[in-house]
Specification:
Elements lengths: L1 E4 L5 E7 L4 E5 L21 E6 L21 H11 L4 E6 L1 H12 L4 E7 L12 H8 L8 H12 L5 H6 L10 H11 L4 H7 L7 H10 L4 E6 L7 H8 L5 E6 L6 H4 L1 H12 L1
Parallel strand pairs: 3-4, 3-5, 5-6, 6-7, 7-8
Antiparallel strand pairs: 1-2, 2-4
Helix pairs in contact: 1-2
Length: about 280
């Protein structure tokens, strides 16, 4: 583990694994310790993965000012990490809400980004709308799964505006490629890695203007790879294609049978796809 000072002096931690050129990896959650990323299915065999624990998560200290949990305020932490590592330009990867931070960094520092990898990114920063119909059509593909009846009933209550807290938990299987014992155990561990107070401030009001972010995406000259899971209801493939199309050098890779963490569903496919792009 290494440490450095964030933009406001908050002591931040990062974890390195593997050899080769650095790939800075930003976790999602939002505000989940980077441990859940592991070695991204074995990607560390091709690149040196540098996993950042965002402020207030993992081994990083909590800031004095909770307002700095807002995602746009954390762009300066990513820049501080780049300087600490002594890199002129970076390859940058972000997962889910971490992809939001990665994109905001690229928008603010386009001259510092060589390649950008967006893993199952949240559509929020670019205003891509995922409709209930999009999710229903994707959910229907899982009808043969043993957990489907209860999970789909919960989804229907959510769509009808009658959701309970239990319903939101009940649809979790729809975000996994396989809802088996290993996936359930991983999901249970993740709950302890998330800072809920920090998560509440991550997407605070005025964190970004989707129109401005879309415009910056259209001006970005770095190659961009967007990886989507074919079963991921958070960003169905059709909406992922819309998102990837915002970039002049955008590329979409839809991983068959994968959910929201595709490196767990088919590590070989995932690693080969991402490593090929980074070469």
């Amino acid at each position: 583990m290494g440490t450095f000072d964030g933009a406001d002096g908050t002591r931040l931690a990062y974890h390195s694994s593997g050899d080769g050129p650095a790939l800075i990896c930003l976790p999602g959650g939002p505000m989940q310790a980077s441990a859940y990323l592991g070695d991204l299915g074995g990607l560390s065999a091709h690149r040196r993965l540098v996993r950042l624990d965002l402020r207030g998560t993992g081994e990083s200290a909590a800031p004095v000012d909770p307002a700095t949990y807002r995602c746009d305020r954390q762009v300066a932490d990513v820049e501080a990490l780049r300087r600490h590592l002594g890199l002129e330009r970076v390859d940058l990867a972000g997962h889910c809400a971490g992809a939001t931070l990665a994109l905001l960094y690229a928008a603010r520092h386009p001259d510092r980004v060589d390649r950008l990898v967006l893993l199952n990114p949240s559509p929020r920063p670019v205003g891509v709308e995922v409709t209930d119909r999009d999710r229903r059509e994707l959910a229907e593909l899982r009808r043969g799964e043993p957990w489907f009846p209860a999970a789909f009933a919960a989804f229907e209550r959510i769509w009808a505006g009658r959701a309970t807290a239990d319903d939101w938990a009940a649809i979790t299987p729809f975000t996994w490629g396989r809802w088996d014992d290993a996936a359930q155990a991983h999901h249970e561990r993740e709950a302890s890695w998330r800072n809920p107070d920090a998560a509440a401030g991550y997407y605070a009001d005025d964190a970004f203007d989707p129109a401005a972010v879309r415009s910056a995406a259209g001006d970005l000259r770095a190659p961009v790879l967007l990886v989507a899971g074919a079963y991921d209801v958070a960003l169905p493939a059709t909406r992922a294609a819309e998102y990837a199309g915002l970039f002049p050098k955008g590329e979409l890779a839809v991983q068959p049978g994968a959910g929201h963490q595709p490196w767990l569903d088919d590590p070989q496919w995932f690693v080969e796809t991402v490593a090929r792009f980074l070469r």
